Amino acid sequence: MKIFAIVLTFNEARHLRRCIASLETVATDILVVDSYSTDETLEIARACGARVVQHAWMSHAAQFNWALTQLDSDTDWVIRLDADEYLTPELIEELSDRLPVIGPEIDGVYFSRRMTFQRRMIRHGGVFPVRVLRMFRYGRGRCENRWMDEHIKVEGGVLDLDGELIDDNLNSLTWWTAKHNSYASREAIDLLNLEYEFMPRDSVASLRGGKQSGVKRWIKEEVYARFPLGFRAFVYFFYRYFLRLGFLDGKAGTAFHFLQGFWYRYLVDAKVTEVKRHMQLSGCDAAQAIEQVLEVSIRGQ
């Protein structure tokens, strides 16, 4: 059985060795797709035995779908992992036991993903663990084409595993806020596209089947997106921090739930508002306003 792991990188020297080490007993091959890193990412990847290719970055979805075209044609399964993530020993053992006996009707495999923030595991707020489809049969899955919060889509049946992967980013809070500022622009594009439809919509949103990713996306697009800008960020934070007991995650958890559950969401709404204001003042369309205000080129996406 040939299992290819795909890891997308840009300046991930701090995390990559740990990520690859967790994949060594699961994946037969590891492909690192790098966006022209300037640190030691490439040297570490090659030293760990990974195959390395470089490709200019457009979006996470576009980069991953391009990476699929670089795999060997006799690949059986594909695993997607971010460089700051790693598989737990429990998940590795479960994959070793279950993969050989998975029937042909199964196209995708769900894992649970937990996140740390400032080295503390986030356990409350109704956020984690997140169920994510991170493994699929080669040729039967692709990443949905969107700017933010993209998921793998498969057509056939799926298998749910109990094991977890851990998202444990070791960078500073300054790096984290800069990254989420960039994420906010990308999420603003997806929200604007719901209203103005300047790009084809590609979404896993569905209430059928009860899958967490589909239900959460449906709530986000059909409920959350209809709430007033700004106010919805406060409602979401209140739900996470008070109703779902996010305050039990301690000081680091308070910072996480406030920054990721309120500040980030409010920043997305502020960017959406800024784009709409520019559209009114300049008379340009949504796509032009996004490029002029958010400084993000959406052509070719």
TrEMBL record:
CDD domains: Beta4Glucosyltransferase (cd02511). It comes from the Bacteria. One of its GO terms (molecular function) is transferase activity. The keyword DNA damage does not apply. The keyword Transferase applies. Residues 6-125 form the Glycosyltransferase 2-like domain. Keywords: Transferase. This is Glycosyltransferase family 2 protein. It comes from Thiorhodococcus mannitoliphagus. The lineage of its organism: Bacteria, Pseudomonadati, Pseudomonadota, Gammaproteobacteria, Chromatiales.
